[in-house]
Amino acid sequence: LAQRPVITLTTDFGLQDHFVGTLRGVILGLVPDAQLVDISHSIQAFDLLDGTLTIAQAYKYFPAGTVHLVVVDPGVGTARRPLVASSERHRFVAPDNGVLSSVFAQEERMRVHQVTSDHYFLQPVSRTFHARDIFAPVAAYLARGVDSAQFGPEITDFVRFNLPRPKPAEGGALRGIVLKVDRFGNLITNISAQDAPALFEAVAPKFTLRVGTRDITQLRNAYAEAAIGEVFVIAGSMGFLEIAANKAPAAQLLSAGKGAEVTLTLEESARALSSASV
Amino acid sequence: LAQRPVITLTTDFGLQDHFVGTLRGVILGLVPDAQLVDISHSIQAFDLLDGTLTIAQAYKYFPAGTVHLVVVDPGVGTARRPLVASSERHRFVAPDNGVLSSVFAQEERMRVHQVTSDHYFLQPVSRTFHARDIFAPVAAYLARGVDSAQFGPEITDFVRFNLPRPKPAEGGALRGIVLKVDRFGNLITNISAQDAPALFEAVAPKFTLRVGTRDITQLRNAYAEAAIGEVFVIAGSMGFLEIAANKAPAAQLLSAGKGAEVTLTLEESARALSSASV
Amino acid sequence: LAQRPVITLTTDFGLQDHFVGTLRGVILGLVPDAQLVDISHSIQAFDLLDGTLTIAQAYKYFPAGTVHLVVVDPGVGTARRPLVASSERHRFVAPDNGVLSSVFAQEERMRVHQVTSDHYFLQPVSRTFHARDIFAPVAAYLARGVDSAQFGPEITDFVRFNLPRPKPAEGGALRGIVLKVDRFGNLITNISAQDAPALFEAVAPKFTLRVGTRDITQLRNAYAEAAIGEVFVIAGSMGFLEIAANKAPAAQLLSAGKGAEVTLTLEESARALSSASV
To answer: Judging by beta carbons within 10 Å of its beta carbon (0-12, 13-18, 19+), is residue A167 exposed, middle or buried?
Structure first.
């Protein structure tokens, strides 16, 4: 039994218009047995950071051979290039604007091709909906077995940006930021297990995480361990420290959101423990 | 032609993050030919009542053999148990917190297994995303044919709660509550055909349904039968009386919502008619 | 390898309730190998114009043989008829209320059958959820190969409405309206390439598009061509002129929304160019 080709969709198109339905139609029109899977269509509009965080969290769980279509594309209609990027297990179709940055950071070897073969496109190509006219058909042909090299020349000067990383601050502290707020109001910081390994252990040293004027000093191993109204830190499933509350949106309790600064200070002993990997 | 295994997803994860996409990836990574079907991902955050009402309305229409993944899980990371529950036609994977209560109420015989075999889990198991690390892989292995008993011991002390039921009130009245407000602003009460059979007939006796300070006295058989601005009662498709308006949100017109009390008073004759089954 | 039947869903049911999950269950219960594809479930409640614009944009990209279920149904429970409409490539199941109007406008020959054979329905048929009890099973049986004529008699008096069309105004101007606002805040007008061909060229003549008290005089070929804060006109992917801004919601910048009047005035020379096709 031949496996059906899996194609995932990640966009900032939302679900209220015809956009996503149209993409699905274009793909199925070319690969009727495709398995279409949404990662999310609620990437914040034009937000490359939100886009790259989202695809980078999800793609690796999909079966080998999956094609991932990622469209957050404020430059649609300009000269920014369409890309096909391939690792050993996964293939990606996206605009060349950095939206694959966190994928590039996780995958050792990727080959990237600029898409220039416009006979794969839907004609005429519109000015504002390249997802329909360029990216979706390219993803479909990839899933049908067309080789990446067929779409255009290999390039190495594709756009990539680094995720904001925490920086050392006064008194041995670490200054990070909130990367995103999730559906439950948890604040996902950019402080990872590499940055502060002690806080990813079951029993943590004393610490203070400052957000605005609030000092958070509790680490919890489960949301429900916390008292009602308590704001605490937890080792999140994305690999970063998260600021959370039990059945309540921490973002609202702290009046903090995406981009907010956080400052982590560990006790002397813990700092020693962490310093090796910082 | 072998049928593809159907797996439904019901969660409170929302659609704006990577959560649901990641679940889909985990499942397809293990069962590439699975047919993934969303029931809803917009269960109100942490709301077990909303979760159980939703899965209980939808599951029975799916084909025999369907695996239903239901994750509303405020206790994630604590000692609350993961469950596999099986009826003759359906299988459910969920945390042991009552979110399957309305399924248990509809299915005569169910076998429930606590999931203890952690070699089915994604390792390392995170503290906050057991849907990804425990529930999704268990659902996938179930769909692949692993027997429920393989996941752990059968138990009978699983958590279940009763839906709030209407209670007799002064003067032969019935006091219920609003279970939920739907997308159209209809108020779904907990008064069923068993509680007030007369109101599920095409022609109803005189009655008053009080919500707050408003008395509703009209029963309609279709939304469009009502005058503009009229608030009325209708026998809803979930099996409960609903309070509705024509092309307008009754919840807003009445300033009433989930949990609001409603008091139903039938005329003498109708009461006699209903009393047999109350 | 037999192709799996494709069934698309377009409704105003939203995603927060069990409605859509239930539809999917009903269809899979009857056609377990169906490929279910959402076009959108966020059609504005009861809004036939939004519904018909959405299905009309998306359906044509789907493979031949696709069944499209379209339910925006304020008249549910009344005598309004359920329909099966078939073109050479596509089939549609919808209430007879005009929600297919833009499809009828695009498809030359369609045969329309009233659905009267109630042995295809789920029994008992509820008063408020015909999508579950009537439309979904009919779509499923169609996908299983039941001929349209089996569902009931052919009719020609089905409901259809015309999309609002721009009208000539004083001084050779064209007066149109905003058909919808999309997820990005773009205002989609009803002025098409036929109405104002000059504005669909890469280089446009001088023009003024008035919305409220604002005069828009710039045409752009890509969002990112515009200065920050600039509001401009662009030839949109739906085939209509759109009013947009670069990474900002034009609707908000202009305080304009669906139904707003727009007045297009072209320079003399351009008008001459356009007049043939108006």
So the answer is: exposed
Question: What are the two backbone dihedrals, phi and then psi, of residue B188, each rounded to the nearest 5 degrees?
Answer: -90, 115
- With beta carbons less than 8 A apart as the criterion, state whether B217 and B231 touch: no
Q: Which of B22, B36, B43 to mutate to test the interface with A (most CBs of A within 10 A)?
A: B22
Q: What DSSP line would sit under B108-122, residue for residue?
A: S--EEEE---GGGS-
Identify the sign of the CA torsion A89, A94, A97, A100: negative
Helix pair B48-58, C19-30: axis angle to 10 deg: 30
Is pTM beyond 0.90 here? yes
Flag whether residue C128 sits within 8 Å of chain B, measured between CB atoms.
yes
Q: Sort out which chain C residues have CB atoms less than 8 A from A76's CB and list them.
A: 222-224
List, edge to edge, every strand of the sheet that includes B35-40. B35-40, B6-11, B67-71, B91-95, B82-86, B111-114, B154-155
Confidence of residue A278 (pLDDT cuts 50, 70, 90): very low
Tell me the residue type at C122: L
Does the beta-carbon distance from B33 to A6 stay under 8 Å? no
- The phi, psi pair for C26, rounded to 5°, reads -60, -45
Mutate to test the interface with C, among A9, A18, A22, A26 (most CBs of C within 10 A): A18
B48 Cβ contact list (under 8 Å, min separation 6): B72, B97, B98, B99, B101, B161
Give how far C75 is from chain B: nearest CA, Å.
Answer: 6
Asked if residue A164 lies in contact with residue A190, where contact means CB atoms within 8 angstroms, the answer is yes
- Quote the CA–CA distance of B206 and B198 in Å, as a whole number: 10
DSSP class of residue B125?
P
Cβ neighbors of C275 (< 8 A, separation 6 or more) are: none
pLDDT of amino acid C228: 87
Residue C196 neighbours by CB distance under 10 Å: 29
Amino acid at A21: G
Q: pLDDT tens digits, residue range B210-265?
A: 999 999 999 999 999 999 889 999 999 999 999 999 999 999 999 999 999 999 99
Q: How far apart are CA C118 and CA C35, in angstroms?
A: 25
Reported as half-sphere exposure (CB side, CA atoms, 13 A), residue B34 has a value of: 33
Minimal Cβ distance to A221: which of B26, B45, B127: B127
CA distance A164 to A173: 17
Q: The tokens 């504002």 sit on which residue?
A: A128
Q: What is the pLDDT of residues B114-156, one digit of tens each?
A: 999 999 999 999 999 999 999 999 999 999 999 999 999 999 9
What tokens does A180 get? 């995103």
- What residues contact A125, with CB distance under 8 A and at least 6 apart? A118, A133, A134
C188 and C242 Cβ atoms separated by less than 8 Å:
yes
pLDDT in tens, C200-247: 987 889 999 999 999 999 999 999 999 988 999 999 999 999 999 999
Q: Where are the alpha helices (DSSP H) in A47-135?
A: 48-58, 101-106, 130
Residues of C with CB below 8 A from B35's CB? 28, 32
Strands (E), chain C: 6-11, 35-40, 67-71, 82-86, 91-95, 111-114, 154-155, 167-169, 173-181, 187-192, 207-211, 214-216, 231-235, 240-245, 261-266
Cβ(B211)–Cβ(B260) below 8 Å = yes
